[in-house]
Amino acid sequence: MSQALSGNTFGTLFRFTSWGESHGPAIGCVVDGTPPLIPLSEADIQPWLDKRKPGQSRFTTPRRESDAVKILSGVFEGKTTGTPISLLIENEDARGKDYDALKEAFRPGHADYTYWKKYGIRDHRGGGRASARETAVRVAAGAVARKILGPSVVIRGALIQIGPHKIDRARWDWNAVEDNPFWCPDRQAAQQWEGFLDDVRKRGSSAGAAIEVVASGVPAGLGEPIYDKLDSDLARAMMSINAVKSVEIGAGTAAAALSGEENADEMRMRDGQVEFLSNHAGGILGGISTGQDVVVRFAVKPTSSILTPRRSVDALGHDIDIATKGRHDPCVGIRAVPVGEAMMAIVLADHLLRQRAYRGEGA
Amino acid sequence: MSQALSGNTFGTLFRFTSWGESHGPAIGCVVDGTPPLIPLSEADIQPWLDKRKPGQSRFTTPRRESDAVKILSGVFEGKTTGTPISLLIENEDARGKDYDALKEAFRPGHADYTYWKKYGIRDHRGGGRASARETAVRVAAGAVARKILGPSVVIRGALIQIGPHKIDRARWDWNAVEDNPFWCPDRQAAQQWEGFLDDVRKRGSSAGAAIEVVASGVPAGLGEPIYDKLDSDLARAMMSINAVKSVEIGAGTAAAALSGEENADEMRMRDGQVEFLSNHAGGILGGISTGQDVVVRFAVKPTSSILTPRRSVDALGHDIDIATKGRHDPCVGIRAVPVGEAMMAIVLADHLLRQRAYRGEGA
Amino acid sequence: MSQALSGNTFGTLFRFTSWGESHGPAIGCVVDGTPPLIPLSEADIQPWLDKRKPGQSRFTTPRRESDAVKILSGVFEGKTTGTPISLLIENEDARGKDYDALKEAFRPGHADYTYWKKYGIRDHRGGGRASARETAVRVAAGAVARKILGPSVVIRGALIQIGPHKIDRARWDWNAVEDNPFWCPDRQAAQQWEGFLDDVRKRGSSAGAAIEVVASGVPAGLGEPIYDKLDSDLARAMMSINAVKSVEIGAGTAAAALSGEENADEMRMRDGQVEFLSNHAGGILGGISTGQDVVVRFAVKPTSSILTPRRSVDALGHDIDIATKGRHDPCVGIRAVPVGEAMMAIVLADHLLRQRAYRGEGA
Amino acid sequence: MSQALSGNTFGTLFRFTSWGESHGPAIGCVVDGTPPLIPLSEADIQPWLDKRKPGQSRFTTPRRESDAVKILSGVFEGKTTGTPISLLIENEDARGKDYDALKEAFRPGHADYTYWKKYGIRDHRGGGRASARETAVRVAAGAVARKILGPSVVIRGALIQIGPHKIDRARWDWNAVEDNPFWCPDRQAAQQWEGFLDDVRKRGSSAGAAIEVVASGVPAGLGEPIYDKLDSDLARAMMSINAVKSVEIGAGTAAAALSGEENADEMRMRDGQVEFLSNHAGGILGGISTGQDVVVRFAVKPTSSILTPRRSVDALGHDIDIATKGRHDPCVGIRAVPVGEAMMAIVLADHLLRQRAYRGEGA
Predict the structure, then answer these.
(1) Residue A165 CB coordination number (10 Å)
(2) Which listed residue, B80, C189, C213, C268, has the most CB atoms within 10 A of its CB?
(3) C325 to chain D, minimum CA–CA distance in Å?
(4) Distance in angstroms (rounded) separating the CA atoms of residues B132 and B333
């Protein structure tokens, strides 16, 4: 992944540059590196944005945004032209006044303090550039990436833990994911979570979460050793999502406790194709895709905005006690599911083009 | 982090480009972006290489390499000139013949299969480019990065788990780290690990491990939102190390189970300075350093090279059974400790220069 | 200069990513890497756009565009925040229908044929992405770059040749530049050019031109050897402007005919400062600024859109004869003057930040 | 072209990172991004280095270097593996003592003063990093680039002017180029140049020169608008060569004087192929190759090292008079011919891979 030095660009051959603050007039991105002649319209992008959009259940922020995306360039007569695709989403429900009290206060666990230390100035309204609102443009760019990957690559995400409550992987059902407000693949867990998260929400508290994203149909050979390994780029991609504190590939942290015998994913030929007998590797060996499912997990910390007052300081050097009012997600991890899917698509599309550069069309 | 598209460059303002295979004549790297006038000699680099070097205990590969580094450019009369620093390490104990049997076989859990799928050719001797030998150049580049950071930034790594055996964090003692062959900060655990790993080694098996790297004295303000967050770049850096399967920042995966109240690192003024009362964030908020310790953990899978035969296939499409002979580390995680430290130094040095570009010397 | 691989990003630490076609709804760019706390508003950018804007005299295209720039992000309460600045300019006078006849025809000297060969698709309306309209965003980005450079760096451009008619350098007067429709520093030449260009325009022909851009007050030390020399980056910057066919630094092509004695810019101390006695180098030695005026010249070919029919082919493989109707500049070089100034500002701002990264504030 | 921020990397998908000073132990580069399975050995690289090598006639510096290149990585059993290719050339005839007198003196027209201003330190021996010796690694990298391009792309360079003496283009004969010490395509001019340059050499003076590099067989469609145009990248590539002061594409500076009618390269179908009837464009329209010959010219200033004393200053702020002793080329432009060819090959190989990424194998 090559990127702008000030950090607002992601990707190399397929890349996007994002801009916009939570409470400015709009947010958007420029998607560059899309091959020409791919059919593309706003209708290809909007469903993914709708999936991430706030206000869809009582478990996400009540901020109301239609998140309607506009394509401003790069598409001609329904097809990509190979030139940059400018995507724009207007901010509609930006109540700046809610935040006046926070102007000089640093909320614990927020980026308030660090932006102040870094820049000496910050747009304090709704987190400004550090707001989770920024993730909308990732989802929009991810929709374009999916078009490059084509239908043979299927990317799906799921919430596998809320607070201390994990799913039972034996009950994993991808069909369940769309049927509950959590993108939870375990119907039974989803029901339990409702009670838990209602309680969290009513107390004005918040909960962490864990997400798993799986990409099927990824061709073997994607990923560039040594420093642009497919897993390195996925780690960077997921860790760059707001509030993410860990990234795991395949067996992940559990790999530390395995023996070499347990960890080895054995192989056999089957109908002339290589078949792996297990997938501790998460579909990546030596930084390069094996052709198995690519499996990534990440943990999201609880939203820092809570009603219980916390000790903090302000920009003037005063001790203060602070409780966040405004509108917030009790579990920001829920809306991270489509964002994680988008980042997976973006990383894969980039590496698909990179491999094609070196090995040609068949890659 | 911007990087070469074929993935052999790491970093943006401070960057290195690495080259070399396990069994070629030498390995090395070009370190670019070092500010001028920094005192530098081979004596500044060699101790860190010695720390990573194989054959220092019965718990690492018996391959014998002096790993003597040569500076070929970029230093004049004992000081950096601002021009690229070429570092070269000769391969001495490269017994290519050990590997002839592996020429067309794919070892489970190795990069053999994926390099074959990616490139259609591979240097099979000792893992070729995918060998852990490559990490020597990271350590060399990391030594230069430490010189840029200066003595106020202290970077230390430790092994905190081998196989299923974790340290007791209550017994953490940085002084213990140098006193055992594991870089273990818990003397009691270190003793237990000897027996465990001797057993693993004798059985020709291997064990996973977990490493923690801590950087103290990092100034607040480092990290570039949105996609080049300090934690995103650390995640990529650590995940790019051979065999790493997860990366965690601060509370890491455990953050998923925390409540917002628990997770918030409260702040108070103390002697005119901001003081944090806890560090779940691992020293990073919104992708930017807070001034607290930067804390990164990563899990390393067990070495794939084991004596027990495993089912596999070869390049000709045959089913085979394969056991690795050659010389190998029973726990590759041990030698990952200095590598993790080096990657921390490299990421921090890069972001220090980046912040300086935008904010000037005081940054 | 690092840039997006698909070529729509320019710059490294200070960079912009542009998007938009001649006849789409808008054009724009994302300016990334602007240090925080710089006062910036649309009023800082608009005057430079007005200078480039078409329809200001009978010597430029009659297309009417107000070219009003909007800042969509990155500025808070009148100051830059260090986050990306999104700039948008709406297209107002986009008469797509003028171009229907050109849908499958390739105009000689245009990018029609090469876009077709490259992408297999093109937005043929008004040149699409290849239109000189794209240069408006360069001028907008350049205005931000000027704010980074501050008032001590003065960048001025002038037209020094139209068709075969050159200025007399002995009559060079910067004050004359604003007084004629050509940005010509030689009042006498400007008068002669009116007659010449009126004739060209009436015949439906077009004329080439040469532009000189001079930056004064550039500190010594900017430019990164070996491949990012200040002159290399200026050469790339200017050559990337539509229709430019050559770039010269200082003595330029005339340097080939000089002897070493003539070419050497001698130095003397004067009031404790180094003073150069001539400036054949154009302010750059070894790729690094000397502190003298940085002097760049570039030649612009005549507009390809002419009334006289030319032999060509179309996308179906037919021989055709083609004459361009639509609205066009008889000498596109005139409007290249503010574009060249902008590119100079962008390159210098980028290198200023780069030098600051390595050498600190004083740089 | 993306590059390292400190400027020692050139290229994006095909790129090289160079290192080394004139009087250090060696120079070299790491070539990254070469597709796998390309036959490559030192014998493919050495002939191009021999062409550039000093001491081959009385018209180049008498410094004696065998310039023997070693491949240290990236090639296995005679083929590229897709991993980085490390190339190393030892410095043999590095007489550092010749330069002691220059330690604190700034030679007019050299990079001495600017390196000092930039870095506050410099390796003064033989120009250090700014030495023309650096161009050897460009030639080595260019040899690898030629292997990527394959035999259908033919790149040839020629010297077309020495001092004020130009060739007669009507006498252009590519076969003549190898028959004289100047790479001159005009046998008659070559003879006249001998006398001219002997005189220059005997007087301890120096002469400028102009070089033309032509690439035939370049497929249409290479080049990435807007800022990575093929001509922009060529301009940067050539301007980055030591002592180059101008770059022209096709008609170049002469384009300013042309009318639109003269400049338009008309097209006709011929045997089912598009045929251009002229090539003022130099094979590039809108930044993209047309399929015609790509034609680049550049002017080289006279070597700054001359025997006649010139006025200058030193690092201590004294006025001095300085004459260069040491060993130098009377016309550094001669050895710039193979360097220009190499840079052409590098730029074309990079863009070939880029186009392949977006359009697949057929590109």
Answers:
(1) 16
(2) C213
(3) 14
(4) 11
